[in-house]
Specification:
The chain is α/β, with parallel strands linked by helices. The protein has helices spanning 13-20, 61-66, 98-113, 127-139, 156-162, 183-190, 211-219, 240-249, 298-314, 318-325, 358-369, 393-398, 400-407, 419-425, 442-448, 466-476, 484-489, and strands at residues 23-25, 33-35, 45-48, 71-75, 88-91, 117-122, 144-146, 170-174, 194-197, 230-234, 254-259, 266-273, 278-284, 287-293, 336-342, 345-352, 379-384, 411-415, 431-435, 454-458. Helix 3 crosses helix 5 and helix 7 packs parallel to helix 8 (240-249).
Length: 490
């Protein structure tokens, strides 16, 4: 969570009233952040009692105030329920949730007051990793505010805006979608100076008629560009032409491309892939740049080109950005690596458990294939169902068998009814265990894993593959090992 580090509060009482049109009851504590969740609330946060799918935030207002919230934003008709509990900002509005409307209004006020260079990132795969890479490299050059986790939807984007300090030099916003026209209002709030699309793949295809329709939905991000802004596109992606049309129809002043294509403005001339990192030789708008990337995999190397395109478009320091990328590490659930102590030896865990689609699983398998293992060691893939693939779901799962073969994966464990189609397409020698749920895989994996193995875990969030990662860490994690990749290599 980003909090203001200056002496000035993030929001003053007058600014809150002006932005939201609300009425303050009581005197708020200095506001240093914003929250919608009491579990992660920090003292001084402004708590928004929004209505979720299952719970009403008003049920947690007293708890938030007792935990030190600076104030709580509540619906006007509920303000009396919290008399004496602490300061509340009572809001009203024509929408179904006036508190969410107030959070949007505060986000718009934050966008209006900032002079930061604002970047918006979307894409079927890699948007969170790219957002984190931008946070990492830009933080070395100025105060940088960015979305936490995957706060990229109708509440995550305005919450991230509302948290943005007035003196930020850069703002990086992830924008996601499951359906057409979801990105348009979010891009209109963020109003980016630079908008980047990492790639277009058959993700959420259940909700779209075609891959072209997904490209159109991703292209919506350019609708929010400020006049003269920069659109950044993956030149290698098959949907490039369609995205280019959206960019050219927007207010963009220029279009910048990245990839290995000869015509790319930010072009990879050579990518050297190693088990624990990558080395990229590139040209950025004609400027030669060589850098080491602290995250492995061709997909992250390609997205790093998009990062460099953003750095150049912002007018930031390319050389410093290149140096910063060497210290980049994968986020939790998106390639984080952990050494596991098993007996007198070690195994190697790759946590890719945050969500899955055909493209990201192929990328994760390719990364697993690059991990060096000993002569008796194995590469093990633990895969959960990929969701929202519609009628083609069975085919998409079955077709992963070729990627498993190419990656040289020795054993595959699967969870969920769709992944059964992959399991049955594999030769008997590669079959570990096929289970209905991730929980049923725990014992077979624990019984199978041995020193020297490399195991990668991935699946859609609702399949809960993360609990396999948690179980492996709980039993085998080796906190004293600083470099698990080198441990495996030895």
């Amino acid at each position: 969570m980003t909090h203001s580090v200056s002496d000035a509060p993030l929001w003053t009482p007058d600014a809150l009233r002006t932005a939201t049109g609300g009425t303050l009851h009581g005197v708020p504590k200095p506001i240093g952040g914003a929250s919608i969740d009491t579990r992660s609330l920090q003292p001084g946060d402004l708590f928004f009692a929004i209505r979720g799918e299952a719970r009403d935030g008003h049920d947690f207002v007293r708890d938030a105030l007792s935990r030190g919230a600076g104030a709580a934003v509540v619906a006007d008709e509920r303000a009396g329920d919290f008399a004496g509990a602490g300061a509340v900002l009572a809001v009203s509005g024509p929408g179904d949730d006036p508190v969410l409307d107030a959070m949007r209004a505060l986000g718009l006020a934050a966008r209006a007051r900032t002079r930061a260079g604002i970047v918006a990132v979307t894409g079927s795969v890699g948007k969170t990793g790219t957002k984190e890479a931008l946070r990492h490299v830009l933080s070395a050059q100025g105060r940088t505010h960015a979305s936490i986790a995957s706060y990229n939807n109708h509440w995550g984007v305005p919450l991230t805006l509302a948290r943005m300090p007035a003196d930020a030099a850069y703002g990086v916003f992830e924008i996601g979608m499951n359906h057409a026209r979801e990105i348009v209002p979010l891009a209109a709030m963020v109003r980016p100076d630079i908008a980047l699309v990492t790639t277009v793949e058959p993700v959420h295809i259940e909700h779209f008629a075609s891959l072209s329709a997904i490209a159109d939905a991703k292209g919506e991000i350019f609708s929010g560009l400020r006049p003269g802004g920069t659109a950044i596109l993956n030149r290698d992606n098959p949907s490039f032409s369609r995205l280019l049309a959206h960019a050219q129809a927007s207010k963009a002043g220029r279009v910048v491309t990245f990839g290995e294509h000869p015509d790319a403005d930010v072009r990879a001339l050579r990518i050297v892939l190693r088990p624990d990192l990558s080395v990229v030789d590139a040209t950025v708008m004609g400027i030669p740049v060589t850098y080491q990337l602290g995250t492995p995999g061709r997909h992250t190397a390609m997205n790093s080109l998009g990062v460099m395109a953003v750095v150049h478009a912002l007018g930031a320091d390319l050389a410093l950005a290149a140096l910063s990328l060497a210290a980049l590490r994968p986020p939790v659930g998106r390639g984080e690596r952990t050494a596991l102590r098993i007996g007198e030896g070690e195994a190697f865990l790759v946590d890719e458990s945050y969500n899955a689609n055909p493209a990201s699983i192929r990328a994760a398998l390719a990364t697993l294939s690059a991990i060096e293992t000993g002569p008796r060691s194995r590469r093990i893939a633990v895969l959960g169902d990929m969701l929202e693939l519609g009628a083609a779901g069975e085919t998409h799962h079955r077709d992963l068998a070729a990627a498993v073969e190419t990656a040289g994966v020795d054993l595959v464990f699967t969870a969920g009814p769709l992944m059964r189609h992959l399991f049955e397409a594999l030769p008997l020698s590669r079959r570990g265990t096929c289970a209905a749920t991730s929980g049923e895989l725990l014992d077979p994996i624990l019984a199978t894993l041995r020193a020297g193995d490399a195991v990668m875990v991935k699946g859609s969030n609702s399949i809960r593959m993360g609990r396999i990662v948690e179980a492996l860490k709980a039993r085998y994690a080796n906190p004293g090992q600083a470099d698990p990749v080198q441990a495996i290599a030895r």
